[in-house]
Automatic annotation (TrEMBL):
Residues 61-151 form the Methyltransferase domain. This is Class I SAM-dependent methyltransferase. One of its GO terms (biological process) is methylation. The keyword Methyltransferase applies. GO terms for molecular function: methyltransferase activity. InterPro entries: Methyltransf_25 (IPR041698), Methyltransf_Superfamily (IPR050508), SAM-dependent_MTases_sf (IPR029063). Keywords: Methyltransferase, Transferase. It comes from the Bacteria. It holds the Pfam family Methyltransf_25.
Length: 234
């Protein structure tokens, strides 16, 4: 994307609407720009492979904030029973077009139309970055609600303190804040939501990918009940 600038976040009176409008506008350009992104990111592919092995065939996985579905498709090729969810119908149209046979639904990560404990895994791959800090506890509580005991969450994000503001990307008359986080901050919020951190990976920025900040990947589990955990270990 173009026209990046560091700027203080504006008041988020309707961050969901702003996010949907932004991605509806840039969907086709975004999909073209990042279609082969995973091909040049071996560490990310390794982390997704570890995550897929942890989840296995225990149940469905939701790619929350799936965008054009590239990570959804990758997880499906790794053998997971995965579906995607996103705010943007334009992004979802691309995801369905490029991933025939996979399910994609429109919705908000903050209000999932899923029963308690129905997921074996949830993926939040650079999709919490538009959620204001004061709404992250609600977001992580919703993730915890829909995961089954023993379920796994993988969350990826850029590391830092200052947001990046993208204005008129690819010439479209839209703008949006992209928030960076600190791994220790996210780990603490996940613990407050009831998760147990399993792994924390931070890689340095790759100049070949035009990155300026580190990238973080946290895997957390929803703990099993004590009796269930004891039975599983016998």
């Amino acid at each position: 994307m173009t026209s990046e600038a560091t700027a203080p976040p504006a008041p988020d009176t309707d961050f969901l609407g702003a996010t949907r409008t932004f991605y509806d506008a840039v969907a086709e350009d975004y999909a073209d720009r990042f279609r082969e992104e995973l091909a040049g990111r071996p560490l990310e592919r390794a982390i997704l492979g570890v995550y897929a092995e942890l989840v296995g065939d225990r149940g469905p996985v939701a790619d929350l904030g799936c965008g054009p579905g590239r990570t959804t498709g990758h997880l499906a090729r790794l053998g997971l029973s995965v579906f995607g969810l996103d705010l943007s119908e334009s992004m979802l149209a691309i995801a369905r077009r490029e991933n025939p046979g996979l399910r994609f639904e429109q919705g908000s990560m903050l209000d999932l139309d899923l029963a308690d404990g129905t997921l074996a895994g949830a993926l939040c791959w650079y999709s919490s970055i538009h959620t204001p800090l004061d709404r992250l506890p609600d977001l992580f509580a919703e993730f915890h609600r829909v995961l089954a005991p023993g379920g796994h969450l993988l969350i990826a994000f850029q590391v830092g303190d200052e947001p990046r503001h993208h204005d008129r990307p690819w010439g479209h008359p839209v703008s949006l804040h992209f928030r960076r986080r600190r791994p220790e901050q996210i780990a603490e919020l996940l613990a407050d939501a009831g998760f147990a951190l399993r792994s924390r990976t931070v890689r340095e920025p790759d100049p070949a990918l035009q990155e300026s900040v580190p990238q973080a990947f946290l895997i957390a589990d929803k703990p099993r009940a004590a009796a269930e955990a004891a039975s599983a270990s016998e």
